[in-house]
Write a structure and sequence with these properties.
single chain; 422 residues; mainly alpha; Growth Hormone, Chain: A
């Protein structure tokens, strides 16, 4: 097979869903005006996205090998393309909820398939770590593109639904990804010997995997990280609008700084991990993120008090310094997710990669939903400042969890080195 064409196809599949998944913060901002829904009601979009991801991954991952990775991804791309075409035709809040439910189901299938397929297209652990880092970095490029794609369709008119036309573009992108995948040969023959087990046995093995000490600690790390990340990504557009009285389109565009910071941080992490212990990089990044959070929120409180209520900020040049500083938190936390994903997958045999990928998706989704809904609740009742200050708690907890995860992975690595001599 053409290895690099296959890798490109996997990356493009991930890119499509990066845009759809991470548009939730933008859509939350838009539906509040287009459909006159409250912040609490709008925050349910995160649950409509993440809970289907968790449910799909939990029940499908254990027998995804039987379905076939390529067939699974083709079905998911076709389904999401059709739903995107329906969005502008049915301009209702319930249709938006259905879109994110479909996005969640399809992404659950695609993410597990892509993660498991990396084993088929990489040669060794070193290349696997590198490819995982670049995959997640490319995902963030999709997130970054998302802000500019959506803002191009926002006209800043109250009640307007012109932004829904963006879904025609996303349907076309899904079709392109599907055609590219059709041209790819994904050699899954090495996995056929593992498809004979009954579903109940395969599902039971995934549950047993979930209670291994290494996996339990990983689950805590993944849950806390995504909780933190999604709190920022989902609610930053709304925070930009409320804190600075920005136009909707500028609020969305400025959130692109967060996406760019996350992408750059993951590329940089892939390089740093070759020379510096990954735990030191991640712990230092989290501490720096906490410091940056406190500084930027204090600046935000001071500067927002100076902004006149009737002064609308419509251009990048009018935006205050804190609006540029806050999203740089993404640079500090970016490397965490690919690092822990690669660490746990590399510690397990390849036959367990599909169910492990399923667990990654499940608890990432649950973390995302929890973070978004908690932040939305705090945002509505106590304001954006309090909502974002609250993220200092999971940041501290994540540092402790990463320390335990590092110790466990070191123990497994040491036992592997001793095995041949025994």
């Amino acid at each position: 097979m053409n290895r690099w064409l296959t890798i490109s196809s996997l990356f493009i599949n991930y890119f499509v869903f990066a845009i759809l998944l991470n548009s939730v913060g933008i859509v939350i901002l838009q539906v509040q005006e287009s459909y006159a829904v409250t912040k609490t009601a709008a925050s349910t979009l995160e649950a409509f996205k993440d809970l289907p991801i968790a449910i799909t991954s939990f029940f499908v991952a254990s027998f995804l090998v039987r379905l076939g990775y390529k067939r699974t991804m083709l079905a998911a791309l076709a389904a999401i393309g059709l739903v995107c075409l329906l969005m502008p035709q049915v301009p209702k809040f319930w249709m938006t909820q259905m879109l994110f439910a479909a996005t969640g189901i399809c992404f659950g299938l695609v993410k597990v398939s892509v993660f498991a397929s990396l084993t088929l297209v990489t040669r060794d652990r070193r290349e696997h770590v590198s490819m995982m880092s670049f995959l997640e970095a490319f995902f963030m490029v999709g997130v970054l593109s998302n802000y500019f794609i959506f803002s191009a369709f926002i006209d800043n008119q109250p009640g307007s639904t012109s932004w829904l036309n963006v879904y025609y573009v996303l349907a076309a992108l899904s079709a392109f990804a599907l055609v590219l995948l059709l041209r790819v040969e994904l050699n899954e023959s090495s996995l056929t010997t593992e498809t004979n087990k009954p579903f109940a046995e395969e599902f039971a093995e995934m549950l047993k995997l979930a209670i291994q000490p290494l996996v339990l600690i990983f689950i805590i790390c993944a849950f806390l990280f995504v909780l933190i990340e999604q709190s920022f990504m989902t609610w930053l557009p709304t925070f930009n609008k409320n804190a600075w009285n920005m136009t909707n389109s500028l609020s969305v565009q400025m959130t692109s700084i967060l996406g760019a910071a996350l992408a750059l941080g993951r590329f940089a992490g892939g390089i740093m991990f070759r020379y510096i212990d990954w735990f030191k990089v991640l712990a230092a990044g989290l501490i720096l993120a906490a410091v940056l959070l406190v500084i930027s929120l204090r600046m935000s409180a001071q500067m927002s008090a100076q902004v006149s209520g009737d002064q609308v900020i419509a251009t990048w040049g009018q935006a205050p310094l804190a609006a540029y500083l806050f999203p740089l938190i993404g640079l500090c936390i970016a490397a965490i997710y690919p690092a822990i994903n690669s660490a746990v997958l590399s510690a397990l045999p390849s036959r367990q990669h599909a169910p492990m990928a399923g667990l990654i998706v499940v608890f990432s989704a649950l973390g995302g939903t929890t973070g978004s809904m908690l932040t939305g609740l705090l945002f509505q009742n106590y304001g954006g400042q309090t909502a974002f200050y609250a993220t200092l708690i999971p940041i501290a907890a994540l540092i402790a969890a990463l320390y335990l995860f590092k110790r466990k992975t070191d123990e497994i690595a040491a036992s592997r080195e001793l095995t041949p001599a025994q």
